[in-house]
Design goal:
This protein is mostly helical and 144 residues long. It has one domain. 62% of the residues lie in helices and 3% in strands. The protein contains six helices and two strands. It has a two-stranded antiparallel sheet with strand order 1-2. Bound molecules: zinc ion. Zinc ion binds next to helix 4.
Length: 144
């Protein structure tokens, strides 16, 4: 593990963001990858205790996404960090970006049922604002 990663992950906001991604991906994986073998995430973030007592239980694909997302989040150069969906820098590689967008789309609304009302609503509102601000042309771009 890189020192820089551990250092960045000591930031409470980075931990909170990563934990939310873990929760969302856990919801997504439980719903979408029901038939796939799943195990508690064993990533650098998990090793640092970022997920507290609720390490997400995910399949190999979702574990790869989360490990990747941890690194992106930890090494985000923006301060303050915007919501990733509202950011003008697309730091995710396309496949990971697609997958994360699926996760958000699936787990965002459902997260409200799982006790993440505030984060879920904030995410919806920020995404909507960002889409509006982006206008028609880049909205088409964002929607792929
Ligand atoms: Zn999965």
């Amino acid at each position: 593990m890189q020192d820089r990663f551990a250092d960045k992950m000591s930031d409470p906001q980075a931990r909170a963001d990563t934990r939310l991604l873990g929760d969302f991906t856990g919801i997504y994986c439980r719903g979408k990858h029901r038939d796939v073998g799943r195990a508690p995430l064993a990533s650098d973030g998990a090793a640092l205790g970022v997920y507290g007592r609720t390490t997400p239980v995910v399949c190999a694909e979702c574990a790869e996404l989360l490990s990747y997302a941890e690194q992106r989040r930890a090494l985000c150069p923006k301060d303050p960090k915007p919501f990733c969906s509202a950011c003008d820098t697309h730091c995710y590689k396309p496949a990971m970006r697609e997958l994360m967008r699926d996760v958000m789309r699936y787990a965002g609304p459902r997260s409200i049922l799982h006790g993440y009302a505030i984060q879920g609503f904030r995410h919806l509102i920020e995404s909507r604002k960002a889409r509006k601000a982006a206008g028609a042309q880049s909205a088409a771009d964002n929607e792929g």
